[in-house]
Known about the structure:
The complex is a heterodimer.
Chain A (H helix, E strand, L loop, with lengths): L1 H34 L7 H22 L9 H24 L1 H9 L1 H30 L5 H16 L2 H4 L8 H17 L4 H4 L3 H27 L14 H23 L1 H22 L7 H16 L3 E6 L8 E5 L3 H14 L11 E3 L17 E8 L4 E9 L7 H47 L10 E8 L7 E9 L2 E9 L3 H18 L6 H13 L8 E9 L4 E7 L5 E4 L4 E4 L21 E5 L5 E5 L1 H4 L10 H12 L4 H16 L7 E8 L7
Antiparallel strand pairs in A: 1-2, 1-5, 3-4, 4-5, 6-15, 7-8, 8-9, 9-10, 10-13, 11-12, 11-14, 14-15
Helix pairs in contact in A: 1-2, 1-5, 2-5, 3-5, 3-10, 4-5, 5-11, 6-8, 8-11, 10-11, 12-13, 12-15, 13-15, 16-17, 19-20
Chain B lengths: L1 E7 L2 E10 L3 H10 L8 E12 L1 H16 L3 E5 L3 H10 L6 E3 L2 H9 L1
Parallel strand pairs in B: 2-3, 3-4, 4-5
Antiparallel strand pairs in B: 1-2
Helix pairs in contact in B: 1-2
Amino acid sequence: xxxxxxxxxxxxxxxxxxxxxxxxxxxxxxxxxxxxxxxxxxxxxxxxxxxxxxxxxxxxxxxxxxxxxxxxxxxxxxxxxxxxxxxxxxxxxxxxxxxxxxxxxxxxxxxxxxxxxxxxxxxxxxxxxxxxxxxxxxxxxxxxxxxxxxxxxxxxxxxxxxxxxxxxxxxxxxxxxxxxxxxxxxxxxxxxxxxxxxxxxxxxxxxxxxxxxxxxxxxxxxxxxxxxxxxxxxxxxxxxxxxxxxxxxxxxxxxxxxxxxxxxxxxxxxxxxxxxxxxxxxxxxxxxxxxxxxxxxxxxxxxxxxxxxxxxxxxxxxxxxxxxxxxxxxxxxxxxxxxxxxxxxxxxxxxxxxxxxxxxxxxxxxxxxxxxxxxxxxxxxxxxxxxxxxxxxxxxxxxxxxxxxxxxxxxxxxxxxxxxxxxxxxxxxxxxxxxxxxxxxxxxxxxxxxxxxxxxxxxxxxxxxxxxxxxxxxxxxxxxxxxxxxxxxxxxxxxxxxxxxxxxxxxxxxxxxxxxxxxxxxxxxxxxxxxxxxxxxxxxxxxxxxxxxxxxxxxxxxxxxxxxxxxxxxxxxxxxxxxxxxxxxxxxxxxxxxxxxxxxxxxxxxxxxxxxxxxxxxxxxxxxxxxxxxxxxxxxxxxxxxxxxxxxxxxxxxxxxxxxxxxxxxxxxxxxxxxxxxxxxxxxxxxxxxx
Amino acid sequence: xxxxxxxxxxxxxxxxxxxxxxxxxxxxxxxxxxxxxxxxxxxxxxxxxxxxxxxxxxxxxxxxxxxxxxxxxxxxxxxxxxxxxxxxxxxxxxxxxxxxxxxxxxxxxxxx
Lengths: 691, 112
């Protein structure tokens, strides 16, 4: 921030200048007093300069000490000690290290004054640094109230600078002393904001105590020097008259002292805090293990590690695996195998009646005096067995051992339980995630199967002038068992096949693809419809499973001869409209489905029918999904209704007849699909003169 | 789907109640696959309450047809509802299997 920088630069500059001027002025004053000569110096100027100096230094530090964003408190403490407190030690070193200075000080007024001035400079710098560092500490995790309180404190403290500025001898005004006393009390009140101490780890706490003690010592040293000479008649300026210095010094002292004491007394409890913090962290790691892509093994390892830390167990093992079989995998820590076996045997004995209750938490806090464990001579006194289980599944058991009696209190058990619960939750979520991924894969593959099957069914029939074909096909599931296809046998002949494989889904889809292959393979030989069925039956007999069969119908249309010959192998009856007779009817032919009889005798069960068609005739070919389509009250669509539909729509184009029928079917079923539906409408047209 | 059977001498009568779809035909298949059924010489299937038969249900009968024939066990359906009979007929099974009107007829044919 450029503004901050400018203020910092300016205050640094004014601070330096004012201090130098102050020094010069003090020296002049000293000379004046000493030699009785009048010169430029003025006592009032001194006050003004000191106020400017103090303001500059405090302003500088105000912008220099950064807000406490992390729980790192030792670094700022070090800064206070090294940059601020060091001044006190330096002065002390000079003072005690060279006793000659002391003598000279008493003899030489200038030197004493200069020394005092240097001390003042150090002190103010230290106070400013400490004051604003403490501000950041007090405001750590601040509240709005606290911010307001501090703001007022800062303003009031700043106001006390007016006292030297107005040259008031505050000692003479009782109310001023009272005010300052109140301000001091306010500072004391603020000193209870020691939240930051709680965030120190044990090591950091020790370091902080050391640093705080050193800072405290530097405060004492400063005060010592400040007050030692304050009453010296040789001294021209006495800064103890400045209430601002006194108040900030007192505040810094109070806060340092209270921090030191609180840090010292919170030492014994910090282990508990650290433990709780570690538990919390372990918990977080457990909950986040899914996002981090950890597997079950790693989750168990994490649980084991965390629980041992949280419970302070001396030995432990974790049994887990599918429904916790005896061969369960195991994490082990300082529990030798024979011991594990012994304990498990004893447990099984003691808990025979509780065997059914798998979720039972077993606690024995006095193993040496319990009847079942007494004989084992265990080096442990307490045992806790925690089940890992959800409502539906069991995952394993966690065994914890402690060398002390009463090692597992309710709090520990609660913590261990929340860990195991979280682990179970995490494991279940992991499995759910895996399952859903697997399902996703299956879905993807089904989608591909559906696409492949879609390609097996022709979308367009050859267009010609002698006929119209319109088709509809809809699978109930992703893939179905219905199929139809065509093959142009010669210029004037076309073979059309329709079929339905028993059953639904993938297996039906496979057989449907097989049937398509058989159709294209066999019809290369230009077989008659009944011949084709016999051969197809023989081919299917070798590959269809026993419970499966296929119904099919094959039509060979010769439009030069204006005839259609067909064979029906167990498939739905063909619906026909004869334009000449204006009659709608079903062809009643006999024929057994494919794959029902799997020997040569099938030939007797299939028949061929030839029919000469007239222009305007309509043939409707369909699968049982149409006539067995059900309404909401379980009524079947039926052959009669289909026949009626054709008798009403035969005059339309093939496409429109198909749409009319399918609309009627969907209306009837209210758009619920139970079975695959296929519908082909073929409308014959007059032979073109040129063919 | 409910499957009941009553036994008298060398005859087992299986009555089907409900819809014979993909899931219930598994039950029927288990019933017919039971080796003890080969001890009977006649199997009568009462279809009075059979409301619907799917291709899977037909498949079960078809798959056992040959086995029963080889073991000279007679399989006779009776009391079949019109629409169920239609399904058998369309597929051509009426010529392959014995389907009669009443229980008495079934018994008569079985004893021939």
